[in-house]
Amino acid sequence: MENRKVFSVKVEDGREGRDGKPSVGPVYRNLLAKQGYPPPDPEMSTTWTLFSSSVEKYPGNRMLGWRKFVDGKVGPYIWKTYKEVYDEVLHVGSALRASGVEPGCRVGIYGANCPQWIMAMEACGAHSLVCVPLYDTLGSGAVNFIIDHAEVDFVFVQDIKVKELLNPNCKSTQQLKAIVCFTSLAEEDNAKASQMGIKTYSWTEFLHMGKENPWEISPPQPFSICAPLSSEVEEFLRVTCCAFVVQGYGLTETCGACTIGFPDEMCFVGAVGSPAVYNDLRLEEVSDMGYDPLGNPPCGEICVKGKTIFSEYYKNPELTRESFEDGWFHTGDIGQMLPNGIFKVIDRKKNLIKLSQGEYVALEYLENVYGVTPIIDDVWVYGNSFKSMLVAVVVLHEENAKKWAELNGYTVSLSELCSLSKLQNYVLSELKSTADKNKMRGFEYIKGVILEARAFDMERDLVTATLKKKRNNLLKYYQAEIDALYHNLTTKK
Which residues belong to any copy of the AMP-dependent synthetase/ligase domain (predicted)? Predict the structure, then answer.
């Protein structure tokens, strides 16, 4: 019999469901944790100790690099060493404390990735401050929600994002005490912030304040909480990049990866690895989708337990209760356990519907597949148990839609293009092409579309702060058009 490497260990047997409870699969753990979780490294107990120990070991190594535009062209990389970054972080942290920010306060960071972003984050770690990212890809509606919900009163911001932060619609900005720009603020932005009672600082001014007012660091004490890549792409990267490429799996709620692959094992291609050292994993039955953790192959919802799992959703005890059962966090992702002890992510549990003919449809999966269609910028797929077919609201990709219009002799606005039956038919044909390429089943094909020029946004309450679709709100918003579309489709049949 062929010896097969095994990459996780079973520490508890699975059990059949009873009394209305689902079946659960065996509990698996990292090979290093067979007899229990090993003691953590005492020198690596927080993000601050991780950073500061790296500075001690590699003070002269390059840490943060960026490129400047010179005469309209990208120049060479400019670098700061670990020690240079560390010194700047200490100045930023001192300036925060000199400004009245106390341990436990929430500090927002709003902008694209850059050295200042990282240094602001590390400064928060040095003084037990809560770093709150304000999503750079979202509009003022999301920023307004995050500032209010997290009770942020101090923000670091990229220069091009200052106007969005000071937008009158971003009402929560009025609660801010100070703003620090990654570079410097324009005079009009300084004046506007001053009128709102908000202090403003350029990055240079803030560093100078920190140098003049040094403050002892007060890092946090250690505590116990802290879309798969296609196999073709992963294998290509492993072969061509001359570097280790591994996949892992994790969520915000698991504070990073709860599974991780091995860099020198090709059997991990297409999978997300084995359990991380401080996590237990098991699969739970999802009968409606036909996933059985005691079947062959074992499949079910991925549930995680261990030292890295979050404690609660901030200000949302109801969602916290829904997500945990007997200490197990339910991820909403469907996994498959392979014979060699590694996991694959194969589906999503949530947003599953049954069509009138009894077929189940995973809406998020279809949206991910159809979303690669070039004419599409975003798509919301809709169906219900009283209909036999799916329809969709399609947000047009502006550039590609305008190219289509030019080729077809139309010189109207994007919103006017949305009403053209010729474009609707073209979008349907492109969706069909995508479905054909992905070998979808007949009931997964989109049969009718509503074209939309405007992205799904928070202003209309159609998405969350992290751009997840609010399906009930989308249905309310487009209900009349969906009813009309189904009527027309039924009449044609």
Answer: 55-193, 227-314
